[in-house]
């Protein structure tokens, strides 16, 4: 029988199967719970709000005297930006970062301050003036001129200190920045998740720019950058991945808690005999008779083909290995050791470090690739 004691991979989960069989609601009520629909989705993300807040508070402590913001781009890394902003705002976060103006508009009414990392295009200007708490992060001299010519006002500016992605070059003449009301001068570390000489080089370059370009605050460190030490903190840190349970570098292990727990419903339990194959292209052949469960999840939901024969699903505290290839909408797992029946909910092993190793995908991809067919259920 299933037990309500969780595995190491699902230590904060409630055993959904036991609740279901006891006749309890599968979707909890309370703040953040979605309104009940005529038909519930066969997929859900259990999102641990306490772990999210814990991660931000741990990163804020690691940031020392610097304030700690939050990157909530890509719809809060796939969790839902409004709910992420609401929880982190209540915890004390005051600075949020998104990619574009559509993302800013989605949270403008629930956040104290938003910075738009991709700057301001001509077609963004009308919307950019609607929300005084939303600022562009200007990335090019053309964007700077556009902002000045449209009336100026508080803005952030990105300086490229070596990544050769977005930003004004770190050695650009000071005249480029004249006439701007810079709230935060920012740069971005390219190699913070590893021991690389470029980290120190970028820090030195950014400090040199900060010494000659006036701004109210200066910001360099992302999630991994926070763990590089106090010299990288400046006035404001901007974690992203680590907020949502990602472990960006070895120093973060044991500090960051898992936030996202995908769960999928069993469509069928079936018996496979020795010598038979499971899934497309017969990549898995059973060495002995075994019991299989077919789950309502696949690569269309973000559970990629890299998990074929490498992924794990949990029935309570029992590990059930993935068998054969992941399909678009379906997943086959070995439940020979588990008491699982049609309609049960099983938990996908989505501890991000481990899932990344199993799938060959980055932790960022694993989070942001989770599809819209999941109900997102906060607790």
UniProtKB/TrEMBL annotation:
Modified residues (N6-(pyridoxal phosphate)lysine): 73
Annotated GO biological process: D-alanine biosynthetic process
Protein's pathway: Amino-acid biosynthesis; D-alanine biosynthesis; D-alanine from L-alanine: step 1/1
InterPro entries referenced in this protein's UniProt entry, alphabetically: Ala_racemase, Ala_racemase/Decarboxylase_C, Ala_racemase_C, Ala_racemase_N, Ala_racemase_pyridoxalP-BS, PLP-binding_barrel
Signal peptide positions on this chain: none
Pfam families in UniProt: Ala_racemase_C, Ala_racemase_N
UniProt keywords, alphabetically: Isomerase, Pyridoxal phosphate
Active site: residue positions: 73 (proton acceptor), 280 (proton acceptor)
Protein name, per record: Alanine racemase
Source organism (scientific name): Sphingomonas desiccabilis
Gene label: alr
